[in-house]
Amino acid sequence: MADPTRQRFRTGHTWIASIASVTALVFSVHNFLEAREGPQTMVALPLSLKMIRSGNATSLFLQPTVSTRFDTEDVEMVTDVQVHLRPKTTRGRPKFFWEQNVQWWVKRADKASAKIVDKTSVWYEFASDPTPFVVTQSDPKQPVMQFTAYGWTLEPDRFEGTLTVERASTRKPIRRSFCLVLRSEDITNLMKGDGWYEWRKDVPGRHEGGCYHWYA
Questions:
Q1: For a designed S-S bond to 77, which of 106, 168, 173, 198 qualifies (C-beta 3.0 to 4.6 A apart)?
Q2: How far apart, in whole angstroms, are the C-alpha atoms of residue 153 and residue 5?
Q3: Which tens digit of pLDDT belongs to each residue from 47-70?
Q4: Dist. CA 213–CA 180, nearest whole Å
Q5: How many Å apart are CA 24 and CA 113, to the nearest integer?
Q6: Rounded to an integer, what distance in angstroms lies between the CA atom of residue 84 and that of residue 159?
Q7: Between residues 27 and 151, which one has the greater pLDDT?
Q8: Cα–Cα distance between 166 and 66 in angstroms, integer?
């Protein structure tokens, strides 16, 4: 006659092994399904943006972060990016288009001024055309995008903005909302056409409502 204690041990061991096998199977199925799912794209807006005025054109520079949460079999392709600004009280609604991608660089005159970086020493240059780009978990993208509008009559206002990211994997775009405040003195400086100016939403005392505000 078998020992009851040994029999219970064998029975319990069998159940534990079965539970472990089922758990491993569940995780395997979950990982398999996750890998077969389309990548979950995330888009984050930067803390600052830049603007310039040149002749009849106004350009807005944004550097969003585009990434995916999981490492999947498929990659995500961003096919188009758009920016829209809607004024709250005035009628001057600009029509922006994605002109190009740029990169910012710093020009230092000599070693003595190596640690001094001001607005006059920072500029941008062409980086790439506005083409579709691929995003994977191991390779998030942070392109500096230049959006340009012609014939925009600048007026002081609060603008409700939208960054729209179109993807090849779905017809449903990703939209991120933001707001931009333009004061009369901001416009006066911008209209000088003497270079870029910055707006930020993280400077204490200058981020009312979470909007991008003038930062000199």
A1: 168
A2: 89
A3: 999 999 999 999 999 999 999 877
A4: 7
A5: 61
A6: 9
A7: 151
A8: 12
